[in-house]
Amino acid sequence: xxxxxxxxxxxxxxxxxxxxxxxxxxxxxxxxxxxxESEVIALKTAEAAFIELEKQAYGPTRxxxxxxxxxxxxxxxxxxxxxxxxxxxKNPIITNADRIELGLHVRNTKPSNIPAPKSHPEFSIDLLxxxxxxxxxxxxxxxxxxxxxxxxxxxxxYDVLDVPPVRPTALSRTLLATRTxxxxxxxxxxxxxxxxxxxxxxxxxxxxGPWSRIERAIVP
Length: 220
Hints:
Blueprint: H1 12-29, H2 37-57, H3 64-86, H4 96-102, E1 121-129, E2 132-139, E3 151-160, E4 173-177, E5 182-185, E6 194-203, E7 215-218
Antiparallel strand pairs: 1-2, 2-5, 3-4, 3-6, 6-7
Helix pairs in contact: 1-2, 2-3
């Protein structure tokens, strides 16, 4: 398949971000879109396995065995994604807007020129319950929660650190949130520690806008 025309990102790091958004969208709409729970579970399982091995494959514990396992996990994840897009996601109830939010390509019916985002989101961090924080975001200087034109979501970068980061790109965990609010989940060992968060818009072409300021909170 022509990689330039493929909706699945070529780089592992990009696929980890893309698949997190895709899986969340499929899971949230599974009942409406008539997707069986078993297929949602299979997708979630494949995604979780790939993301964990992707971290290891590019981390200090990297070795040939982990890289091989990561490659196999990626192949399994791609298979689950293509099985859904090739059958379940062709359901006529699913709109082009839905497909764009999932990160899929849609056929253009008229020319469009989507600019890179010029503004950044404003956001708040709210305590939800144990090990969970809720991120609420909207466009800067706006009362509406509507995303700017051409934007398909907010990239949330965050990390649990002992020292405040100098810039948002130093935050190692990223995800694409297509709806506000979005919940961040943490492990038990991170409770009581400081998490730093920054947010930026991303358009339908994957171009990012300017980052917000970095905010911090304590993991409950």
